[in-house]
Specification:
It comes from Alkalibaculum bacchi. This is ABC-2 type transport system ATP-binding protein. One of its GO terms (molecular function) is ATP hydrolysis activity. InterPro entries: AAA+_ATPase, ABC_transporter-like_ATP-bd, P-loop_NTPase. Keywords: ATP-binding, Nucleotide-binding, Transport. With 242 residues, this protein is an alpha/beta fold. The protein has a single domain, classed as 3-Layer(aba) Sandwich (Rossmann fold). The protein is 36% helix and 22% strand. The strands form two sheets. It has a six-stranded mixed β-sheet, sandwiched between helices. It has a three-stranded antiparallel β-sheet with strand order 2-1-4, covered by helices on one side. The longest helix is centred in the C-terminal third of the chain and has 16 residues. The chain is globular and about 55 Å long. It starts with a strand and ends in a 7-residue tail after the last helix. The structure holds adenosine-5'-triphosphate. The site of adenosine-5'-triphosphate has 11 residues, from helix 1.
Length: 242
């Protein structure tokens, strides 16, 4: 579904290279975990995929389209949530739904459904600026899902949420996958990716270290992560991490 072909990126001409010739594919229907240390380039890869920023060199194709042509069929939840503090929860949802192909009747119905699902229905008319981080995260997820995207990009979705919200998040991701969506999720939470992922990529300093389907009954994400990074660092004569 997504093809990265020799992708290079730097934020400004004289800035360092952030992504160094990334090439890999993500299959239709995958829940794909993007892993790597702080500053590896995960958010940059998600932002490029969402079409907010453009590759310096190389290309990204989503169902054979460039990201700008696929915008109506995908949703991006940034680490900062991307919701509007000065709108109510319901207004946030309706606005986000209006950016997709959803019709007006569906927008109202789905907005209410998601508020119920995420335990926020009683707070639907609150301005979200006063909400806790965890509540904003839940709303951001609802905003991402309300337009029934074919591709969902989630940046660090587990950051700052409580264990109960994490369970809700996991069940929503599994449900969304059953509906046929493809998901790309950047995370430092290896147990979370172990539970929901069926493919992963590992990035180190803008270089792709590993990309494959995973069978967590046979091998844990944590083991793949540390083994692959250590192997990569040995090959590149960097320090081992454990
Ligand atoms: N707007 C920007 N302008 C210049 N450099 C940037 C910008 N955003 C990110 N960078 C740099 O790009 C590199 C990769 O950042 P990115 O946010 O993609 O990493 P990440 O893997 O998501 O990190 P983390 O796990 O800490 O969120 C870092 O060196 C960062 O400083």
């Amino acid at each position: 579904m997504i093809k990265y072909n020799e992708l290079y990126f730097r934020y400004r001409k004289k800035n360092p290279q952030i992504l160094n010739g990334i090439t890999f594919n993500i299959n239709q229907g995958d829940v794909h975990g993007v892993l790597g240390h702080n500053g590896a380039g995960k958010t940059t890869l998600l932002r490029l995929t969402s079409g907010i920023i453009y590759p310096t060199k190389g290309e990204i194709l989503i169902d054979n389209k460039v990201p700008e042509q696929f915008k109506r069929y995908m949703a991006y939840m940034p680490e900062s949530n991307g919701i509007y503090d000065k709108l109510t929860a319901l207004q946030n949802l309706k606005f986000r739904a209006s950016l997709s192909n959803t019709n007006k009747k569906e927008i109202n119905q789905k907005s209410e459904e998601f508020l119920v699902l995420l335990g926020l229905i009683d707070r639907r008319n609150d301005l979200v600026g006063i909400w806790s981080n965890g509540m904003k995260k839940r709303l951001a997820l609802a905003c991402a899902l309300v337009g029934s995207p074919k591709l969902l990009l989630l940046d660090e979705p587990t950051n700052g949420i409580d264990p109960e919200s994490l369970e809700v998040l996991i069940s929503i991701i599994k449900h969304t996958q059953r509906l046929g969506a493809t998901m790309m999720i950047s995370s430092h939470n290896l147990d979370f990716i172990n539970e929901i992922g069926n493919s992963i990529s590992i990035i180190e300093k803008g270089t792709l270290v590993y990309n494959d389907q995973i069978d967590t009954n046979k091998c844990k994400v944590k083991d793949i992560y540390f083994n692959q990074l250590n192997k990569f660092r040995k090959d590149n004569k960097d320090e081992e991490i454990i």
